[in-house]
User: What shape does this take?
Amino acid sequence: MNKEIICTVCPRGCHIDVCGDANSVASLEGYGCKRGIEYATNEYLNPVRILTTIVKIDGVDNDLLPVRSNKPISKDKLFECMDVIRNVSAKLPVKIGDVIVENICGTDVNIVATKALG
Ligand code: SF4
Assistant: This one.
């Protein structure tokens, strides 16, 4: 399976052609430096993203709490995590870094507040 991955490690944005299967990378072409090898390999085998979103606040109708994952989450798990987050309400007061959802979907990642409220 071939996949073109744009490296976002630096502004050059190399287009890296990755060839491999679900478990391994056979070849890479187009990277400008070795950081691109690591980026494209990870992106090909297990792409991850920081999840940034908002959650409801208990008893508050006119405001929402911004949150993010404290570590990157596998892209495969993002929709499942959003289903959980949609049904969560934060209780005030909240400090920056407070855990709103612990170990979301068994990922060993916490969803934390990025704003103090209350
Ligand atoms: S491969 Fe290297 S030079 Fe190219 S975008 Fe990535 S970090 Fe920058």
User: Anything to note?
Assistant: The chain has a mean pLDDT of 96. The longest helix spans residues 34-45.
